[in-house]
Write a structure and sequence with these properties.
about 250 residues, seven-stranded parallel sheet, 7 strands, about 15% strand, binds guanosine-5'-triphosphate, binds magnesium ion
Length: about 250
């Protein structure tokens, strides 16, 4: 079964997107299962079919090893890798046609430690994709936007899987602002002109960073979405269907 991993900086909307997109897929009569890989989360906006918290307990780790919350989360992220066989078995048992995986809140615990790429490689040998969220409110500023491009390029460099880029929470921006950011993602000249409005060192830094990232040949075309209004979920689905199942449906 194809698997989609939802990735993004802390608070970028991973869990709510997972909830909204899985509901949307179910309404479209697609058989989807949802996996929670965040061992530290207390409350989720969906009921997971598979939950890492059944195997890794952050509270226990704090007590057992005398760790603070951050130390326990780092240890937990590494322990997820040891549970890969259990998780893979649980995922298999759902028998779903598509699996969405909500990843740990702090992206670096998943993307920038050894366990994340290991989990992505081991969970399935079938097709997979990453969905990377750009937080719309954060991305309004061209300097922040370029920083997010940089982070998402770093994530690509960790997983080397097809990566789909979304502008999350676009209901929080006026349409004009959303269009502006999407235009940056499609048109490097538009982004360059926005960068020219920045001051001094910020301008130089953003311009050089943007050019360095352009040289990587990666595309960051953003699909605007909202997990509150469901805007754009059909477009995300079209892109994922194309990557994962050659444009077919997951469930007939
Ligand atoms: N208006 C609006 N708010 C959103 C949207 N998506 C998420 N949020 C809010 O943004 C906050 C963070 O959302 P989460 O879905 O928990 O984000 P996350 O990336 O899973 O966060 P962590 O796992 O805690 O790092 C919550 O208060 C959500 O209600 C959206 O599409 N629109
Ligand atoms: Mg979350």
């Amino acid at each position: 079964m194809p698997i989609v991993f939802i990735i993004g900086t802390a608070g970028s909307g991973k869990s709510l997107f997972t909830a909204a997109f899985s509901e949307w897929l179910k309404m479209s009569k697609q058989d989807v299962a949802v996996v929670n890989l965040d061992p530290g989360v207390l409350k989720l906006p969906y009921s997971p079919d598979v939950d890492i918290r059944n195997y890794v307990d952050v509270g226990n780790l704090m007590e057992k090893y005398g760790l603070g919350p951050n130390g326990a989360l780092i240890l937990a992220a590494d322990l997820i890798a040891d549970e890969i066989e259990n998780i893979a078995r649980d995922v298999e048992a759902t028998n779903a046609d598509l699996v969405l995986v909500d990843t740990p809140g702090q992206m670096e615990l998943f993307a920038f430690r050894a366990s994340g790429p290991y989990i992505v490689n081991e969970l399935t040998k079938e097709t997979k994709a990453l969905v990377y969220l750009f937080d719309a409110v954060f991305s309004v500023n061209p300097l922040n936007y370029v920083s997010n491009m940089f982070l998402s390029a770093a994530v690509y460099n960790r997983f080397f899987q097809p990566q789909v880029h979304l502008l999350s929470k676009c209901d929080l921006l006026p349409q004009k602002e959303t269009d502006k950011i999407v235009n940056w993602s499609a048109n490097p000249m538009a982004l360059e002109s926005a960068i020219e409005t920045l001051e001094g060192e910020k301008r130089l830094f953003s311009r050089n960073m943007m050019r360095a990232i352009s040289q990587l040949g990666l595309k960051f075309l953003l699909t605007p979405v909202s997990a509150k209004t469901n805007e754009g979920l059909n477009n995300v689905n079209v892109v994922l269907e194309r990557i994962l199942v050659g444009g077919e449906k997951y469930t007939y």
